[in-house]
Specification:
Topoisomerase II, domain 5, Gyrase A, domain 2, 4-stranded antiparallel beta sheet, 37 strands, 4-stranded mixed beta sheet, Topoisomerase, domain 3, alpha+beta, 32% helix
């Protein structure tokens, strides 16, 4: 074990370096925990906050006085109590003055103290500050009545309070955050009125349960408002001291009168979200096409409040865009609650009830110590008044004694000896002005004396009766509530974790059309009314010249469309995410929202209503060169936005079609040269997603597969073959015998 010598004045001893490291690190850790990073549970303040507030109060920088330069306050606090640099002190002052950081600011600032956009505060030489009236309630008359303990400042020249009297539960009202060594605290702000009501309830009914306290304090109340989603995180935090809550911005959907458009307007942000960065984040996501449907983004915030306007495209569904914004941006955040504080120089995680109880105990101690102080001062004053009354009762003798005395000490000694007075009483008689010898002044002294006796009796009774102490605590709390409490800003609503986007979308049958040129659209099936035979019909899709509709099917808005490409990749889109346009419109270009390569096209589409209901379903892939592959549908349930590999495609080949089966279908493959083969799907064993498959039909040179069909083995339908010259032939399925896969097949048409 390594050793080194520690030398102090007149002392030198060997110490193991491992032990010295442990001791020194522990000293450092405790210094950070107790002296810097964690708040005291009694007043909710860290040392730097406490020193700033006390320094301002001591210097007369109160709410009723003019503002003082921040630099002056910083200098006073640094010189007297906190020698750790001006920036640390000023940063703390700035935060205590920000109404978007503190639920109830403790410092009234004049000038630029930053913004929710992350703008820095002006330099301290430009800003001015003073205490708020609520901050004065942290100190008030109590601080001068020996209600708290004191300790020497850093150089022993002054004294500073260990804790402030704090007439309200500041730790819960304004919250606190800090990172110490090996631990951290993150206490959210709460509503002042609710916290005081909880304190009063706990005083009146010490056996109140956690659920009753939860009804009084439903959850945190952030200065920026917004929403809290869910109750579980709050319940966990209040019961155990730790929990995670979900915060969401308050946003409304405004519908424009012109152009059939809508806009999302954000009015309140989650706590501690930087608005400028949020707007920048949304813009980047729109540029990267991770969020679609947004046409414009503006920050219209002013002195009246936050207003971020997100203009939507004509075909965008506002609820979907908003849900995506919650998912991908800081419009939705989480707040990890850790109710960690310091009590008796020890860090500990507290429950809500424990925090309230420790504050109540603190206020009880403050009231008792203040009562003792007031009682001592009242007794001192009564003692002096007793002497004055004796002097007034023997006025002539007192005057004669004083006139006969050679000097004040002689007169004082004579009064003590002649009338049995104390030194304090004798001195008070000597200090009494002549005008107090009048009859009116005598009555005032007697009235004051009787009032003091009544006060002394009351104060003694308070000290003897705990219920009276608690009544005083309650009375003072209720006065604070009456003067400073306001309405809750943060709304708590049920958790939406179990809701999906589909819950916001009405289920409706849609017609999906895809053209050979790569355009896609959806239209409500209801717009295609039923017509009699011989009618002209209705235009289903506008197309460019020489473009034709290649895929057409009906699916629910809640279904998922799988896009299989010629290169063997697959993309997934919900039907409600597809562009909704009128029947005559050509739709949107597929490449605008599918990341297709230059030579890649959509070969097949499938609409899946519910993957869970198709656990035993299979996808049968067929390529132009006769390959076939069978894979379970479940392997395609979770597809990335950038797509995944659906089937491996050999060079020179491409994907022709994809069919959904129950695993027991028959497969029919027809070739360009008029050959066809029928075989059981089970001839091809199930394969993984990235495999290339096996041979379905053996092609002669120059031939390729034109079409593939799947059907039930007992199906009695027909197979229709149409040639390039317009000849057609219909043959019952039963006439095609089942062969093994990989054969050449039989002739379909000559």
């Amino acid at each position: 074990m390594n050793e080194h010598r520690i030398q102090t004045a007149g002392d030198q001893r060997p110490v193991a370096i491992e032990e010295e490291l442990k001791r020194s690190y522990l000293d450092y850790a405790m210094s950070v925990i107790i002296g810097r990073a964690l708040p005291d549970v009694r007043d909710g303040l860290k040392p730097v906050h406490r020193r700033i507030l006390y320094g301002m109060w001591e210097g007369g920088n109160t709410a009723s006085r003019p503002y003082k330069k921040s630099a002056r306050i910083v200098g006073d606090v640094m010189g007297k109590y906190h020698p750790h640099g001006d920036s640390a002190i000023y940063d703390t002052i700035v935060r205590m003055a920000q109404d978007f950081s503190m639920r109830h600011p403790l410092i009234d600032g004049q000038g630029n103290f930053g913004s929710v956009d992350g703008d820095a505060a002006a330099a301290m030489r430009y800003t001015e500050i003073r205490l708020t009236r609520l901050a004065e309630e942290m100190l008030g008359d109590d601080i001068g009545k020996e209600t708290v303990d004191w300790l020497p400042n850093y150089d022993g020249s002054l004294s500073e309070p260990v804790v402030l009297p704090a007439r309200f539960p500041n730790l819960l009202v304004n919250g606190s955050s800090g990172i110490a060594v090996g631990m951290a605290t993150n206490i959210p702000p709460h509503n002042l009125g609710e916290i005081i009501d909880a304190c009063v309830t706990l005083i009146r009914n010490p056996g109140v349960g956690v659920e009753e306290l939860r009804r009084i304090v439903p959850g945190p109340d952030f200065p920026t408002g917004a929403f809290i989603h869910g109750h579980k995180g709050i319940a966990d935090a209040y019961a155990t001291g730790r929990g995670v809550i979900k915060l969401r911005a308050r946003a409304v959907i405004e519908h424009r009168e012109k152009g059939n458009r809508a806009a999302i307007v954000v009015r309140e942000l989650p706590y501690q979200v930087n608005k400028a960065r949020l707007v920048e984040q949304i813009a980047k996501l729109v540029q990267a096409k991770k969020i679609e449907g947004i046409s414009d983004l503006r920050d219209e915030s002013d002195r009246d409040g936050i207003r971020v306007v997100i203009e939507l495209k004509r075909d965008a569904v506002p609820e979907i865009v908003l849900n995506n914004l919650y998912k991908h941006t800081q419009l939705q955040t989480t707040f990890g609650i850790i109710l960690l504080g310091v009590l008796n120089n020890e860090p500990k995680v507290f429950t809500l009830r424990e925090l309230l109880e420790h504050f109540i105990d603190h206020r009880k101690e403050v009231v008792v110590r203040r009562t003792r102080y007031d009682l001592a001062r009242a007794r001192e004053r009564a003692h002096i008044l007793e002497g004055l009354v004796i002097a007034l009762d023997h006025l002539d003798e007192v005057i004669a004694l004083i006139r006969a005395a050679a000097d004040p000490p002689t007169a004082k000694a004579g009064l003590i000896k002649e009338f049995g007075l104390s030194a304090v009483q004798a001195q008070a008689i000597l200090d009494m002005r002549l005008q107090r010898l009048t009859g009116l002044e005598r009555d005032k002294i007697m009235t004051e004396y009787r009032e003091l006796l009544a006060l002394i009796e009351h104060l003694e009774k308070v000290l003897q009766t705990e219920s009276m102490v608690l009544d005083i605590v309650v009375e003072e709390l209720e006065k604070i509530r009456m003067k400073y409490a306001d309405d809750r800003r943060t709304e708590i609503i049920a958790d939406t974790a179990d809701f999906s986007i589909e819950d916001l979308i009405a289920e409706e049958e849609m017609v999906i059309a895809v053209s050979r040129g790569g355009y896609i659209k959806r239209s409500a099936l209801s717009v295609y009314r039923s017509q009699r035979r011989g009618g002209r019909g209705r235009r289903g899709m506008g197309t460019k010249e020489e473009d034709v509709v290649e895929h057409l099917f009906v699916a629910s808005t809640h279904a998922t469309v799988l896009f299989f490409t010629s290169a063997g990749r697959v993309f997934a889109k919900k039907v409600h995410e597809l562009p909704a346009v009128g029947p005559a419109s050509k739709g949107r270009f597929l490449r605008n929202f599918l990341q297709l390569a230059a030579d890649e096209r959509v070969a097949a589409l499938l609409a899946i209503r519910d993957f869970g209901e198709l656990e035993d379903a299979y996808l049968v892939f067929a390529t132009r060169l006769g390959k076939i592959k069978r894979t379970r549908l479940a392997e395609y349930a979770n597809i990335r936005s950038t797509g995944i590999r659906a089937v491996a495609i050999n060079e020179g080949d491409d994907l022709l079609t994809v069919h959904l089966t129950n695993g027991g279908h028959h497969v029919f493959m027809g070739t360009h040269h008029g050959l066809g083969i029928r075989f059981a799907e089970t001839d091809a064993r199930p394969m993984g997603r990235v495999s290339a498959g096996v041979k379905g039909i053996n092609l002669r040179e120059g031939d390729w597969v034109e079409e593939v069909a799947t059907f039930e083995p007992e199906d009695e339908g027909d197979i229709l073959v149409v040639t390039s010259l317009g000849y057609g032939k219909r043959t019952p399925v039963s006439e095609f015998r089942v062969q093994g896969r990989g054969g050449y097949g039989i002739t379909l048409v000559r």
